[in-house]
Amino acid sequence: MTPSSFTILLGGHLTVTDRLKALTQGSRAIAADSGMRHALALGVVPELWAGDFDSSDASLVAQWPQVERRTYPAAKAATDGEIAVAEAIARGATRLIFAGALGGERSDHALQHYLNALGLVEDGFEVVLTSGDEEAYPFADESQLELELPKGALFSVLGFTALEGLTIRNARYPLTDFSLAFGSSRTISNVAEGPISVSLTRGRAVLLARPYDFSGA
From the record, what ranges are coiled-coil (predicted)? Predict the structure, then answer.
């Protein structure tokens, strides 16, 4: 990892796996409110802890007295996660890892992480969202993803718009220059034959991979 890679610790579920450790190795870190609870398991010390602290209890705060805290009012115009991302960008981030972005108790927050990530990709940032069990890679117009997956692992392509020129290679259900209607489930539950390649001519999408799930094999 280069100094431009930042891990944003978010409040959703997080399973620490070998892939997650490799993904975040050497990355700088910023915690968003209760996302700080993942720091110990990941073995990172965030350089900033930001949010309104409505979901961080006193014991968590007491555990990290050395970390700079930046407190915001509860009545604010952005989520704690978005504030943490903005802080990372202000510190020079070009690659962002949203750890704890998928699942959790708040589905509205999880969906907002997807939307925020898609906007960041359009602005030229590299973004990965992860729960450890799942990994999400947003991509948009004229882009291509190459992803190392074990043979038999499940993955899906979620279209956040209609998609044009969608190509999926090295999968059980390949596609070439395919037009996917908005809302279609055609690209859900595919199976990797090993490392996969996904490219797109036009549209906004997220590749959601389950590298430890072989139920479709």
Answer: none
